[in-house]
Design goal:
This protein has helices spanning 8-11, 33-38, 40-46, 81-93, 112-119, 181-197, 246-259, 276-283, 296-300, 305-318, 337-340, 345-355, 385-390, 395-401, 446-451, 456-469, 472-475; strands at 14-17, 50-53, 57-58, 70-74, 97-102, 131-132, 155-158, 163-166, 201-204, 267-270, 292-293, 326-328, 361-365, 477-480, 489-495, 500-506, 512-515, 521-526, 542-545, 550-555. The protein has 558 residues and is an alpha/beta fold. Among the domains are: 108-175, Oligo-1,6-glucosidase, domain 2, CATH 3.90.400.10; 476-555, Immunoglobulin-like (Sandwich). The strands form five sheets. The chain has an eight-stranded parallel sheet with strand order 11-10-9-5-2-1-13-12. The structure holds 1-deoxynojirimycin (NOJ). 1-deoxynojirimycin binds at residues 63, 66, 103, 169, 205-206, 271, 332-333.
């Protein structure tokens, strides 16, 4: 099938930086923009093309930047607007693209808009947020039964004006009211402010929560307590009236229109919760919505061939070409990928081989490429407000049993650059970084892994280099190779008009033999750094894969 030339964003690889934890050049134990500029060489050498930055806008930092008090300024902890301009310029000089984190859903309660809004019932900004009267007695009960994403009622009472305001996440993050056209216009202009500067895209924070039911109807009961990546039901609520409303999906189309005012093309990727099928609605019937959504069902899948085959098939079905899926293993809210797969480095190499060869855009969370692990932190002293919120509840023990992390500190520790003090994260060796660097940094760090051909880092590098030179890996159609003899592996091909590439992944700790689909296979990549060829003659025309090995090959040109 003839395929249209793909846009740059469909071919890219995105790396997520949590700015607080990347590189500290001011010596205060907190990462900064200058630090990121200094590490661009590293990212370029790794093969990264696009960087998404968690928010560095002005903020009281109660939720480390996801509580914004000025959407058009840089927080002094990270630098100045000058540093931002320099970062953008340095990235564009290298042909890298910049993606900002856009938190449209809410502001900080210290945002001047909210301060005004809360000042009196008739303030012109009152209707910028969602205020409602409480129920009886004396209005001291929340307006309805809605639950916040972090647990408890989604309403906070304001003594002064004797009304409640709505928040979907944490009480210091009041939700903006998008039924007010002024709010919409202001936020669209905020997007234009950054797009005019040359920013290449936005990641949209909890976009599914933008609109709520206008008449604030009570939510319906659900049996699900814990949240999941597959569905929005949680905390015994269906979230029918506060999440994924039709208005929110329409809003995605409006956001896209703002992006389409700009050339060259920019993109939107949504953090949206729901099943793959539900998320596909945000892409729009004519690809006129979000360019991409995070497909967390893949992230959440058991690291087993059956589970992956199932989720990839559903993704291919719900989002066939020209839609662009995303493939993600981690972010700043989740237990680190390597820890979720029991620190199995071979498996990590196998999984990144899959991630970088599926049809879609891969997102890599900083530190994943060196195999950084999740770190345990005490909930009482957690930097993450969610950790502190739950530290008093016995629930935190139950949650631990289910393998969900309560504090997100564990996946946000400083990047491990070297075996110097503080893992080389800060130029001040005596400072205690905002989150403690785990002892594992002596073994797991960029400097050490650079020198080891067999390291995870070099595996990422080899794969990214191959991806860059193989058009078929981003524009080829995807197909599983059916009828394979082994249920313990995943085999697929990617084909375009001129090329065909095969990916064979062995998920078990034993050798396996698999049928070779071509006369003479030409090895392009193996997770084993020392494999140089595929010898099918020795195995009756079969390909032998070593334990947990992944390979990429094509037919040798005659
Ligand atoms: C989702 C973000 O990923 C998370 O880090 C943040 O705390 C919440 N949204 C609230 O903005």
């Amino acid at each position: 099938m003839l395929q249209k030339e793909k846009s740059w964003w469909q071919k890219t690889v995105v790396y997520q930086i949590y700015p607080r934890s990347f590189c500290d050049t001011t010596g205060n134990g907190i990462g900064d923009l200058q630090g990121i500029i200094e590490k661009l060489d590293y990212l370029e050498e790794l093969g990264i093309e696009t960087i998404w930055f968690s928010p560095f806008f002005k903020s009281p930092q109660k939720d480390h930047g996801y509580d914004i008090s000025n959407f058009r300024d840089i927080d002094s902890e990270y630098g100045k607007m000058m540093d931002f301009d320099k970062l953008l310029e340095s990235m564009h000089d290298r042909n890298m693209k910049m993606v900002l984190d856009l938190v449209l859903n809410h502001t900080s309660d210290e945002h001047p808009w909210f301060i005004e809004s809360a000042s009196s019932r008739d303030n012109p900004k009152r209707d910028w947020y969602i205020w409602a009267d409480g129920t009886k007695p004396k209005g001291k009960k929340p307006p309805n039964n809605w639950k916040a994403m972090t647990g408890g009622y989604a309403w906070k009472y304001d003594e002064k004006t004797e009304q409640w305001y709505y928040f979907h996440f944490l009480p210091f993050q009041p939700d903006l009211n998008y039924r007010n056209p002024e709010v919409k216009e202001e936020m669209f202009n905020t997007m234009r402010f950054w797009l005019d500067k040359g920013v290449d895209g936005f990641r949209l924070d909890i976009l599914h929560a933008i609109y709520e039911d206008e008449s604030l109807r009570d939510d319906e009961f659900s049996w699900h307590l814990f949240p999941s990546d597959k569905r929005v039901d949680s905390l015994f609520r269906k979230h029918k009236y506060d999440l994924n409303l039709p208005e929110t999906i329409d809003f995605a189309f409006e956001l896209r229109k703002v992006m389409d005012e700009y050339q060259p093309e920019r993109f939107l990727v949504g953090e949206v919760y729901g099943s793959i099928e539900e998320l596909s609605k945000y892409y729009g019937p004519k690809s006129n919505g979000l360019n991409m959504c995070f497909l967390f069902e893949y992230t959440d899948a058991k690291p087993k061939p059956k589970a992956y085959r199932n989720v990839i098939s559903r993704i291919e079905k719900a989002l066939p070409y020209p839609y662009t899926p995303t493939y993600v293993y981690g972010n700043h809210d989740m237990v680190r990928h390597l820890s979720r797969i029991d620190d199995n480095q071979q498996l990590a190499k196998l999984l990144v081989t899959m991630q970088l060869t599926l049809r879609g855009v891969p997102f890599i969370y900083y530190g994943e490429e060196i195999g950084m692990k999740n770190v345990n932190f005490d909930l009482k002293t957690s930097e993450d407000p969610i950790g502190r919120k739950f530290s008093k509840f016995p629930l935190s023990c139950i949650v631990k049993l289910f393998g969900i992390s309560v504090t997100r500190d564990g996946c946000r520790t400083p990047m491990q650059w070297s075996n110097q003090p503080n893992a080389g994260f800060s130029n001040n060796e005596t400072i205690e970084p905002w989150l403690k660097v785990p002892d594992s940094y002596k073994k797991i760090n960029v400097e050490k892994e650079r020198k080891n051909p067999d390291s995870i880092l070099n595996c990422y590098k080899r794969l990214l280099a191959l991806r860059k030179k193989s058009n078929v890996l981003f524009d080829g159609l995807f197909d599983f190779i059916e009828g394979n003899e082994n249920k313990n592996c995943i085999t697929y091909k990617r084909c375009n008009n001129d090329d065909k590439i095969y990916v064979y992944l062995n998920f078990i700790n034993d050798e396996i033999l698999l049928t070779c689909p071509v006369e003479e296979p030409n090895l392009l990549f193996s997770t084993l750094s020392n494999r140089v060829a595929i010898d099918i003659k020795a195995y009756h025309r079969k390909i032998k894969l070593t334990p947990l090995e992944g390979i990429i090959f094509k037919e040798k040109r005659k």
